[in-house]
Write a structure and sequence with these properties.
About 35% of the residues lie in helices and about 5% in strands. The strands form two sheets. Strands 1-2 form a two-stranded antiparallel ribbon. A two-stranded antiparallel ribbon has the order 3-4. The chain is elongated. The protein folds into two domains: about 1-60, no CATH class; about 80-145, no CATH class. The chain contains three helices and four strands; from the N terminus they run ββββααα. It has helices at about 80-90, 100-115, 120-145; strands at about 1-5, 10, 35, 45. The protein has about 140 residues and is mainly alpha-helical.
Amino acid sequence: MTHCDNCDHKNPEDAKFCESCGEKLVMGELKQKLTPCKDCGKEISKNAELCPNCGIRLRKTKQQDHYITKGITTRRDVWVAAALGFFLGPFGYLYLGRYGLCFLMFICGIIIVATLGFWAAPVLWVLWAFHQYMIAKEINEELSE
């Protein structure tokens, strides 16, 4: 293992850049496989978390991993999600795998319509359609990374 002089992170022996901070390593420079940065295009370590040239974060932190997908492995069609939200209301969340949100929105919808009257129902249906569209879009973005 090669230690980074900048942050003391343990890197593989053949690492050219620190995986944690992106600093160039003194040892292990010869056999490092490089990859272009997806933002600036400069050659960087394939294991780097940050690009040392432009500073873009190349890997998600553990807190960011699978925040939206929550175990979903297939993409969701955003327009199907929006249509289901518009025509089925809160039951469209079932298509997105959001069972708890389906139940919560159903109960909230009943309370809102009972409190404000039936004129609030069309507004809720449009909001549900938009929200389900946005959730499907975020699922697809996370799965494509």
